[in-house]
Write a structure and sequence with these properties.
This protein is α+β, with helices and mostly antiparallel strands. It has eight helices and 16 strands. Bound molecules: flavin-adenine dinucleotide.
Length: 309
């Protein structure tokens, strides 16, 4: 029997610690429970929204009038040489589990918060590693038909922070298999540890934020590209430069509106300083986008997802 709750505060379930209440809320631990939850939403004639770790999400202060389904289906195993993981498993567990079983390739994703399902849906990446590159097959539930659908890697349409699952809200990631390179356990574990320590040193892991707010834009302005390359001493790959570099150039480091701030540490992070509201974040984000557009003719696009606006 599903335990559907009403008027549930969502802010504590997000890394931003922002947002109002969900009219209906349920944790699902099995595929059957997920189907039941979807049926409930249909019967009540309300929308549903799948939420997982809440680490890439800005929820309106007014909350959400539908059913929030939180993915808690969590399991990891090795089957026929593939690492087989369900969507609600925290990504750090996936990284550790792979290392402990002697599989390399995804150590650089250590410290990316949230769940495996969220990472697959958004093709999470860090330090040149993207989860999509290591997928063998994804199993999803079609929320319209309640049928299970399988996607081989080349059907997943993975690109920079995107996938077929991001483009189609009705595809809910249930699990996926990873095809990873066998490697020495101790070496994998050391790489994981090194990555986690590197991230911890940056002092951003505990901040009330949703990680990088904007996607890194591709720019056409040759002078700006040259400036970036001279300043950083590295070429801009495919003309893409870090959003944070442009925000910094626009003079927005530390810019604050109410309780929302462009991080002093990392200019592509928007931080809730403690007293913030989602509205403050939206106002600051609009300001940042407008300044970057006016000063450089660049249209920043959000990596963070919005709910309830
Ligand atoms: C401090 C910090 C650092 C971060 N660093 C990085 C980084 O280095 N690289 C990076 O890529 N990201 C980073 N992020 C962003 C975030 O961790 C990732 O986007 C993560 O993969 C989101 O997973 P989640 O489970 O929290 O998803 P949520 O925030 O819960 O959801 C995000 C979106 O995915 C959808 N979704 C979630 N689960 C499923 C599912 N099973 N099926 C279908 N849709 C689903 C939701 O509907 C929502 O639209 C960072 C965030 C923080 C707070």
């Amino acid at each position: 029997m599903l335990d559907i709750k009403e008027n549930v505060p969502l802010a504590p379930m997000t890394s931003f610690r922002l947002g109002g209440e969900a009219k209906y809320f349920v944790d699902v631990k099995t595929v059957e429970e997920l189907k039941e939850a979807l049926t409930f939403a249909k019967e009540k004639k309300v929308d549903f929204y799948v939420m997982a770790g809440g680490t890439n999400l800005l929820i309106s202060d007014n909350g959400y009038e539908g059913l929030i389904i939180r993915m808690k289906i969590s399991q990891a195993q090795v089957t026929d040489g593939l690492v087989d993981i369900t969507a609600g498993t925290p990504l750090i567990k996936v990284v550790n589990f792979s290392a402990e079983n002697g599989f390399a390739d995804i150590e650089a994703l250590a410290g990316v918060p949230g769940t495996f399902g969220g990472a697959v849906r958004g093709n999470a990446g860090a330090f040149g590693t993207e989860i999509g590159n290591h997928i063998d097959e994804v199993t999803a539930l079609d929320a319209n038909t309640l049928e299970i659908v399988k996607f081989k890697k080349d059907q997943c349409d993975f690109s920079y922070r995107s996938s077929v699952f991001k483009k189609n809200k009705n595809l809910i990631v249930l699990s996926a298999t990873l095809k990873l390179t066998p490697a020495d356990i101790a070496v994998c574990k050391a790489k994981v540890m090194e990555t986690v320590m590197g991230r911890t040193k940056k002092g951003l892991q505990g901040a009330k934020s949703a990680g990088s707010y904007f996607m890194n834009p591709k720019i056409e302005d040759e002078n700006l590209l040259k400036e970036f390359e001279q300043e950083k001493g590295v070429p801009a790959r495919n003309k893409v430069v870090p959003a944070g570099w442009i925000i910094e150039k626009a003079g927005l480091r530390g810019k604050t509106i109410g309780g929302a701030q462009v991080s002093e540490n990392h200019t592509n992070y928007i931080i809730n300083t403690g007293q913030g509201t989602a509205e403050n974040v939206i106002m600051l984000v609009s300001y940042v986008k407008q300044q970057v557009r006016d000063q450089f003719g660049i249209q920043l696009v959000e990596e963070v997802n919005y709910l309830g606006f």
